[in-house]
Design goal:
Layout (H helix, E strand, L loop, with lengths): L1 E9 L1 H21 L5 E6 L9 E9 L2 H10 L1 H12 L3 E9 L13 E5 L6 H8 L6 E6 L1 E3 L11 E3 L6 E9 L1 H11 L3 E7 L5 E7 L3
Antiparallel strand pairs: 1-3, 1-4, 2-3, 5-9, 6-9, 7-8, 10-11
Helix pairs in contact: 1-3
Length: 212
Amino acid sequence: MLIYNVTTNIEESAEKEWLHWMKEKHIPDVLDTGKFLSAKMTKVLVEEDMGGITYSVQFTAANKEMLQKYYDEDAPRLRKETNTLFAGRFVAFRTELEVVNEQHVLRPSATHLLFTYGTLQEEAVQLGVFSRLLHGSCDTLPKYKIASKKVADRYPTLEHTKNEKDQITGQVYTVSPEELKQVDAYEGAAYERIQITLVSGRKAWAYQAKNS
């Protein structure tokens, strides 16, 4: 995958007009060529010695061949339009960047801790509930034990004993609000979500059988 980066320094007097044209006309026109997968426009937060305001637009291309097709079939026409409208009021240079590695935070809004002690630790269950595997850490829930009576004679639940010697070791996962709702649905009407405090001091959600 390649990034076709266009960095432009535009005169302050033309910035508003140019910015509107870029967002409403030029960038959509470039994407309409079918040669790129996406575009991202950013403002360079530095005061330029040469004056003006600097922006960077990054167009993502699947490969070098597709980018070359853009150069051959579309770039002359689109560059000519830019030069006609803003002649003498901008300076631009272009760079090709090869994507070597790309990583994403899968759930940027992941703000809940979930303590698990049963089936939610299984990979197959995680894929079914979250469509991804969770990466957790070990922690301990004090003053609780696994109840002898199971939900539907099959599924484990918590029992609050208030005994310091009782504890349950489990996994803690970070999940998003949307994923927490998915866990609610998975656990079903037989369970309720409660907030607990772990040995580490972290507060997390856990599920126990209703009326347990």
